[in-house]
């Protein structure tokens, strides 16, 4: 702020100097002296002419004419008081103009320049450490909407001057997540992650931002980040929370129940979150029970053998076939990889042909494949498994243990 005011003072001083230079131009300061010199030269010339005319006998009253010439010279010389008044008038104009420049410059800035906003911006920027503490995990003082806006302004200011501040980008990403601003959240968290990819909080924040995206690639990357966090010596409870939410949204109810159960053990019965987690588990159990309609849907429980090494970016493809093992599926669905064992449910909404619904079958078999490249027509290197023939409406178990 000091630099700003010093620069404005410098500009005002420059404007006053230019005004002074214009008003007191050096040529105008010598006008009176130049006129005096010219009058004197004319006076001397005229005296010489009168002398010559007198010698030639052209004039008889030389003294009278010289006296008139002297009087004319005196009349043409400005009086001292008049010159003093002129100098005083110039100083008055200069002083008044200086005052007007200062008053108009700062007055117009105060009225049109957003001085209050600039001062607020400076105050918010200086208060960044205190506001940042309220955004950190474990803080008992939630940010108000106004404080959230102030913190965003302060962070953007700091990041303009310090673009390599990973913590600043992480905090900006958390604000965007809280405001459901997906684009800003992902961009900010990605910058933080590129600057400090080994930081657990940043990695978790980046995964949370990616989970908000509707793009499958972003969601798969989020799952990959969460899986890597699961390998750490200490696993943050928020990792399990995100995994549970993702599993529930993907209708992988057994996995959601598993993660919420782990969270319950972590917080303990004394924690207020314990009861809320219990309700979530009960909700998932009800969804799992009601998801299979006898004779109209099939529940498939999938597990992996110990030999399977699954790519975190792979997709899970589940297809229902006629009991004779026909390669053409009657119904199929693609899911994120998730965790295993897991249960998925297929019904008429997953039918491949409108004229032949899944519910029209009686005997079925199920195939499961881990698609590693996103192309269903290529199978080289993919792991797969298939069930024994079963009845529609039964729960079918499939072990993925073979590789193409």
UniProtKB/TrEMBL annotation:
Stretch forming the signal peptide: none
Subcellular location as annotated: Cell envelope
Transmembrane segments: 6-23, 92-112
Residue span, Cytochrome c-type biogenesis protein H TPR domain: 117-273
Keywords, in A-Z order: Cytochrome c-type biogenesis, Membrane, Repeat, TPR repeat, Transmembrane, Transmembrane helix
Domain Cytochrome c-type biogenesis protein H Ig-like: 299-399
Record-linked InterPro entries: C-type_cytochrome_biogenesis, Cyt_c_biogenesis_CcmI, Ig_CycH, TPR-like_helical_dom_sf, TPR_CcmH_CycH
NCBIfam families: cytochro_ccmI
Name listed for the protein in its UniProt record: C-type cytochrome biogenesis protein CcmI
Lineage summary: Bacteria, Pseudomonadati, Pseudomonadota, Gammaproteobacteria, Vibrionales
